[in-house]
Amino acid sequence: MSDNYFAENNKFWNFEGVIGRRNFITNYFIIQLIKSLILSTPFLYLFLTNPKIINDFSFTGTKTNNPLWWIIWILLVGVIDSILYYPSVVRRVRDIIGEPDENRVYMISSILIVLIFIGYGMNWYLPLSSSIAMLTILILMCVKGKITGSKPKNEIIKFNFGACFGTWLWGLFNKTPITLLMLPLILTTGWFQFMIICGLKGNEWAYNNNPKYSNPQDFHKSQSNQTVVWSVLMPIILLVGFILFSFGVGLTANRYIKKHPDAIKNMNKLANEYQEVAIKKNFTKIDLTDDEYKFYIEPQIWTKLPTTSKKNLLQVAANYVKDTKNIDIQKDENFEIVNKVKIYSSFNNELLGERQVNIEEIKVLAGKAKNGERTSLKKYMEIVNGSYKFNNHPSLP
Length: 397
Hints:
This protein is α+β, with helices and mostly antiparallel strands. About 60% of the residues lie in helices and about 5% in strands. It has a 5-stranded mixed beta sheet. Strands 1-2 form a two-stranded antiparallel ribbon. Helix 5 (about 160-175) crosses helix 8 and helix 9 (about 265-280) packs across helix 11 (about 305-325). The longest helix has about 45 residues, at about 215-260. It is globular, with a radius of gyration of 28 Å. The protein starts with 20 loop residues before the first helix and ends in a 7-residue tail after the last strand. The model is unreliable at about 60-65 (pLDDT under 50).
């Protein structure tokens, strides 16, 4: 056994020594960041550029039939996850056991890695399996190590809210250029994970990169003052940035549309494709008559949908009707279409969902508003939100 067997080792990829809970948590967010770059971000861009890809995912009852390419993708990510976690898990287990027993350390670590792989690599087939991986990781995060837990607390190690919310701006002020990674990560789904990493590691980065601090007390005082400053400045910076970004996007879009007259037409076509995909994905049959707009769905799917999703389905159906029939209506007249949309069971034609908005009351409120009279927004919302009627216990096949 080497002299460094129980030495604290906070490197991301290393099997020697032990690692404490805090740095294990940091490595967890680094792995989540990597996973977002190889899984969720590519899929998001793939979905945005090719909406018909959602047709590859079909849902029947509680079983999900995913395409082969997606299963291979998830399995690959599960393997990468397991490999990336392994060094940290070995050091964390060694820290928890606190005894020089390598066989026991690697046996326990291997079992935990298998659980993590099952959780992240098999969730395409076992939807709840991800809870197995999360529970395993939470245990490793929470159990106090016999080695690192017995060491004096490092006065520098605290969560830095200025680094978390200020990221690259905070980094420039504190001579920490690594935070500039936030700029490209804004275009991915990994920006949040990187914010947490900055918060966890910010104090270490800033303290090591600034020799001007003679003691931890001065350092923490400076960081506390910065946190107050960033709390005030960041909302202003974000607002200004959003305005400039919106102006830039609008200007660029305007120039692009002038050079490409078919751009708006193509965008509308893409939007219609999304709507078409959503309709085909959720409904088994559609029957649009003059008196009623009927949409059919499998009752076993309907019973498992939350109320918000049921409301969204009615709205999606109403939008489909307006676009399909090329109905150009005003906002107040929209409820006439909404009231004719019905969702039925594809099993026995049982009514599952509808809206019955009291149009006369809506018109009265609208008339008062036009005449300058004071109207009740609360009353309007009560009429609209109270119009939903759902059958949550339909007959099942």
